[in-house]
Amino acid sequence: MGELSRVSITIDTELLLRFDRRNQERGYTNRSEAFRDLIRDELNRDDLQAAGEVVGTVTLVYDHHVRQLTERLTEIQHGFHAAIISTLHVHLNHDTCLEVIIVRGAAGDVTRLAGQLIAIKGVRHGKFALTAATAGS
Ligand code: NI
């Protein structure tokens, strides 16, 4: 860390309480570090999008019994094959599958791919995360 600056912010009390609870759950021992991480994440995302090429993951949890769901997932992924590096599939239990898709490519393409996958009917949880390819400060 370089030279430090101290800032003061005004924040809704309820929002701050939620933030503190969240930080505690994530194991933060001080609020400043949690704020710094949020700011770094946000700036990283901007840098990645400005660079045009992004790396990330799409995580999906779904019930494979839902009609046409697995076919639709496969069809969409084939449509974006150039943006998909690898896919991990785990059968969590009798009904539920977890899939993690590692993506790389133009921000617009991977964002569209993630959006289409997460929006499929029957996908119970979906999360798209962009990752910095290089170490940030
Ligand atoms: Ni499965």
Descriptive notes:
42% of the residues lie in helices and 28% in strands. It is α+β, with helices and mostly antiparallel strands. It has a four-stranded antiparallel beta sheet with strand order 2-3-1-4. It is globular and about 55 Å long. The mean pLDDT is 89.
Ions, cofactors and other ligands present here are:
nickel (II) ion
Radius of gyration: 18 Å
Main β-sheet description: 4 strands, antiparallel
Low-confidence runs: none
Proportion of beta-strand residues: 25-35%
SSE ordering: HHEHEEHE
- The helix content is 40-55%
Q: What is the mean pLDDT?
A: 89
- Shape, please? globular
Q: Output the structural class.
A: alpha+beta
Number of helices: 4
Side by side, the strands of the main sheet go: 2-3-1-4
In oligomeric terms, what are we looking at?
single chain
What is the gist of this entry?
With 137 residues, the chain is an alpha+beta fold. Helices cover 42% and strands 28% of the residues. A four-stranded antiparallel beta sheet has the order 2-3-1-4.
Which SSEs are present, and which pair or pack?
Elements lengths: L12 H13 L5 H21 L1 E11 L5 H11 L4 E8 L4 E11 H13 L3 E9 L6
Antiparallel strand pairs: 1-3, 1-4, 2-3
The site of nickel (II) ion (NI) has 4 residues, from β2.
Q: What labels would you give this structure?
A:
single chain; 137 residues; alpha+beta; four-stranded antiparallel beta sheet; 4 helices; 28% strand; binds nickel (II) ion
